[in-house]
Amino acid sequence: MCAVTAATLTGLLGDEDRLRVVAAIALGARTIDDVARTGGLDRPRAERLKALPVRASQRRVVLEYLAARFDEGIDYAEPEVNDRLGQFHEDYASLRRCLVDEGLLTRTAGVYRRT
Question: Which fold would CATH assign to domain 50-115?
């Protein structure tokens, strides 16, 4: 697990839109529409990834957020995983692969499960 320093977190939350997103998630928003509505953001600005961060620590934060969109102990078929991840980025296959590679999801015979 990678630690995020206070300085890094402060820098990330220095952007008002990011702060609104974090606040919306803390208040229980679970979908992009919930985040936009709760955070008072326009839908196009809310939560859509342009690219997965290159830095491992930042990528891990994003992947942990994505993994939290799946309930523990539930099996998910690949098309359902694709649909959920496709809400965040058009290259859902890369996101899915990264989640498995990072050990946040397991894959057995096309069935995914949050670890």
Answer: Arc Repressor Mutant, subunit A (1.10.10)
